[in-house]
Amino acid sequence: MAELGRAALVLSLGLVVYALVGGALAAHLRRRRFVLSAQNALVASFATTLVASAVLLSALVRHDFSFDYVAGHTSRTLPLAYTISAFWGGQEGSLLLWLLVLTGYGAAAVLLHRRAARDVVTWAVPVIGGVATFFGILLVFVASPFNTQLAPADGAGMVPSLQNPYMLAHPPMLYLGYVGLTVPFAFAMGALLSGRTDERWIVVTRRWTLAAWAFLGVGQLLGSHWAYTEVGWGGYYAWDPVENAALMPWLAATAFLHSVMVQEKKNMLKVWNMLLVILAFCLSIFGTFLTRSGVINSIHSFTQSSIGGWFLGFIVVIVVVSGLALRARLPQLRARTKLESPISREASFLYNNLLLVALCLTILWGVAFPILTQAVRGETFTVGKPYYDFFLKAFGLPLLLLMGIGPLVAWRRSSLRALGRTFAWPALLALAVAAVLLALGAGSSGPGMIAYTFSAFVLGSIALEFVRGTRARHALGGETWGSAFSSLVARNRRRYGGYVVHAAVVLLAIGIAGSSLYGRTVERKLSVGQSMSVRGYSLRYLGLQQSKSANATETRALLALGGRAHGTLTTGTNFYPVEQSSSREVGIHTNWLRAEDLYVILDQSGPKGSVFLKVLVKPLVNLIWVGGFVFVLGSVVALWPDAREERRLALRYAEGVPARA
Amino acid sequence: MTLALVLAAVLAVAVVVFVARPFLREPAPASDRLDEPGVLERRQLALAEERDRALAALKELEFDHRTGKISDEDYRALVGPLRRQAAEALRALEPRAGSARAATRDPEHEHL
Amino acid sequence: MVALSIAAVLAVFLLYTALAGAGTPSLSPSKLAGHSGRVSLSGNVIGPVRGDAHGAGLRFGLRDIEGGSKTTVPVLYRGTVPDLFRANRHVVVDGTLRSGVFVAVPGTLVTKCPSKYAPAKTSGNSDT
Fold it and tell me: Structure pTM?
């Protein structure tokens, strides 16, 4: 069966090369049947990649250890769900997933938009084909999932830290996001190459970008939650290069989602939008490169391999080609309208973009720093948490404030007096909250106070938007408050969905500020029967227990909770004999009233059953996860198709195209 | 093993046929040329976008005014130029066939 | 105005790098000699691993991961020991070289999983 898989991949490669070369030729020569043929090739490449994926999946499920890949990443005792997750758990399989999602997205994008945006799609096909060719070459010549061997009795098994439900959700979500950014990129290139630089490519790819961005965001939140609950060092984000690899394209995509609104409304920032979408895509490829190449010291690491060089070369090709295309169309993209006032919604979008891109680039600088210093100084230097924390505050806090200001400022220009009036309520709320917080002792952290105050301001302004809109709609007459609210949101999905997403980001900000700046950590050695207390929680150590599960020996310290918490908590380690490794299983007690966690790590067991515990109190950390759900809700609202708008757009594009014979 | 090869061969044939389909369906077409939008069409599209932008800006101004974000005086100051812009955009499109139909369909009365 | 904003952003960046210095050197054991100040050392753990990280200190050696150098740097570590720590594992630890012994900053010991894709971070970072 491996031959079928290999053959299917070779077919995929052939098809995407045809889509690339044939598609480009057809677009250039404007040959209708040839163009259709190239589109068919792209669609067919999804089918062949699907076949290859099915072969790998079935080999995994059947425990066919004659497949190198299956033997290397699974074992007979591995539960089915994790065996399936092994598909994307290793280098070759994850590349196959990339190609599968890419061809899938490509086929869908082509099929959905080839009528409305014919000229753009005509050129988008060779671009998608080009990206797919890269991955196809890797899969066929460099990292094939279908290498075979003499089947051993059992496989090597899966690293215990990957054996958890997150492994089923986190990587696929991230891939749907990463790969999803290829579609807006391809359509942007399509617009440049075809010369159709009107806003059609933006309108058509708007939902794709939003969806990819949402997946990428959710994927990162899942990864953070995984790190928090399973990896268990007490944190959820370590500024590890691989974590940053997902954050950077997400920040660029966030900037893009905002600046396209300026292009739609004011026909400005066209060049900037092109640059952003190219940046977002390059960063997503760069992210994949980082995760695989081993070029940067990271905790997540695939096998150290030469595959990194290929990715680097690919990024160079992308930058050169897109740069040339952009330069060729520069005159067409130059804006005729200018920014009228530094206090306007256009301007606040611009500030938002600058801050997001600045944050993105500083992270990029931090990630690339070791490579650069090695090349320039001959010695590797790394930057640590203080670097990232500083810039997160320097750029993130103004961004937080801007989320509250932006929606309240009018387009073109806003007088300061008008601003004063609209800001009044949210600002008052923020000051009131600040006063209360100071009284409660939150003044211990300056940045924390700022974050909380700004958050209150933003939440106030969002609430005000909803209230104002509902009230105005209700005033039109004929609707109850409830239906006024729902029809308000239904008729302005992007706006109000966006506000909900902003609210989610605020929750995230509050959660991050609370848990990083107002927490407490205590390390203590406890013998049986001893107690300790931290921030109103008391923990009494009752003893050590050992038990056996299907593939692990579980050691747990039992603790009785008192004070702010009740019940018991266990924390400990699992030892996996097959893989000869252990993993920490932390104990987390959530205090929902305060949205905070009591986080207990069993560091070490000492003599006579005593234990070394590390106890952390993490205030408001659960707002991060709540924010994640709100994020999904807001994205769904914003993504929900609007029939009226679709009709209007279809009409507009129908006008520009003569009736077809 | 041979099953794998047979399946691969079937897949290959299917794929090649699918890719060649456009040529097979129309072996001798009247025109194989992909029409490029002419200068007139492009202008039409640009004007349609202008019109939509102007109308959307008006709609948003009404919305912001009705919800109290923009004061009465600011509204009075801004609505004039925007209405003029929208009227110009509509006028520019009028001489072209089909746009009259489109103009009446605009959701002008749906400010919220 | 755009130029002004960009200038402001750059200013923030330059201010930071000027004040905070330019990163921590990341070295392998064979290159450690002569470095004073805090560095990040990465290498292979060489046994025997002795002592108690929560007591007088855990003692082990670090050698270059590749390159075949035989230099072994003795390390003294106190603090949280990550799950996967053992001899022949690739680790990274921050610290300072003092009289021939690399005295580690507590809680900065991080292990890397051997070669599979594995988010095996279990260091002592407790803030984020």
Answer: 0.90
